[in-house]
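Supplementary Note 2. Why include the ligand at all?

Several targets in our set were suspected to adopt different conformations when bound, so apo predictions alone were not considered sufficient. For every target with a known small-molecule partner we therefore ran a joint prediction. The input for NAP is given below.
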Amino acid sequence: MQNEFKFLISNDWRESKNVLEVRNPYNNDVVGITYLATEGDINDAILNAVSAFKETRKLPAYKRAEILCNIKNGISERKEDFARTITLEAGKPIADSRLEVERAICTFQIAMEEATRISGEYISLDISERSKNRNAIHKRFPIGPILGITPFNFPINLVVHKIAPAIASGSTIIIKPASKTPLTALLLGKVISESGLPSGAFSVFPCSPGLAEQIISDDRIKMLTFTGSAEIGWRLKQIANKKKVTLELGGNAGTIIDCNDNIDYAVRRCITSAFSYSGQVCISLQRLFINKIIYSDFMSKFLKEIKTLKMGNPMDENTKLGPMIDEQSAKRTELWIKEAVNHGAVIACGGLRKGVFFEPTVVTNTTPQMKINANEVFAPVVTVTEYESFEDAVEQLNNSVYGLQAGIFTNNIKHVFYAYEHLDVGGVIINDVPSFRADSMPYGGAKESGIGREGVRYAMEEMTEPKLLVLNLS
Ligand code: NAP
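The joint prediction is reproduced in token form.
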């Protein structure tokens, strides 16, 4: 595997004096080095994005689809290279990294199809004498150069969720990946640079937060699409001022187990949702509410199954839990657990940090105010609360500043619609966990969890502006 990764400004691979070492969270080895872009580099990227937009906005649909298809094929040819790079820089178990790469391929496939579907509407305006013989066309136009900022936890698919809809809808895009996991995005840059996309339409580079903020406030950039923490996201929205912004932020997702129809299935899904990638997923299951009638049955199966999870080297095919992204995150988790226990919480399993690893942990007897409930824990920790009435469980799940997705296991159709109507979240997932996501579905949050939607077609809507053409044919 290549160890030096230059960054990409248009079709120009560059380096700078500011070396960025990317380390493997598992053993702290240097995985690769790259460079932080300078002010000169970012100015070139913006200039090129503006100039290339003149070309991309006019690209016919079949051409955009062809470029997207080339990128999809380029990733497919280097699947294992992408998966290994993700595992090395993010510490994600290799099986999960492979799944992420498959999803990225699928996201480009969807974008390729949507590029040819983006269309408009013909409207007849003969609604009165005054407007007879008038007709209108309403269609969407690409917004212009976009800046995408991405987090560490899905180094390819969340980058793709910004690039693919931008290309599909005719905009140019600059990507600033997370500095902990930039190598996968730079590898993707190589594939994109060979795809036939007009030069200047795409740049990707890590840079300092100060320079990233400079790009956000630059008037030539028409939109910020940000995925990351709520703290940073809402602050950047202020810097973006009047320009269009979508924010895909954090959460403390809840799940309600309402019935005993298939407890084994619910247990398996909850384990995947709470502990995959050590809980470092924005829609990880963090708060579990269980109907009193099935509480002890569910809990005994849940705790037994957790014992089988293998923690270790993320390159090992059997590893389910790898390291957390850094020791600081593991220490923060340890602190929050201790704080909860000091206030009366009970650890049902796990609870211990081993360096950068954190055991899969289940905590009961918690209160909504404890950090492990109120904040985004972003670690392999789930709190469990018993409930008597479904309405009360919905209220407890809603008792959060966040609102990304919620899971409900039920066979009661009234409960399905009660939850859909009353939960303040971006998505309600019935008979599955909140971390379910298909890359075509509208995805995003309510409350502190963000604004706007991703999922290719929905991101394309965010990245375009509608314009009306009225025709007087009298
Ligand atoms: P983060 O610390 O907020 O960072 C996200 C991105 O913002 C990184 O590229 C980061 O760069 C950049 N950034 C930080 N400060 C900045 C500034 N002042 N100006 C411009 N850019 C700045 O988040 P993270 O720790 O990487 O990721 C975890 C968070 O992302 C969690 O809260 C998780 O829930 C959320 N997330 C949400 C979704 C969703 O779809 N809703 C999906 C995945 C993750 P550096 O890396 O260089 O600091």
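The first strand starts at residue 7 and ends at 9. The CA atoms of residues 362 and 382 lie 5 Å apart. Comparable summaries for the other entries are listed in the accompanying table.
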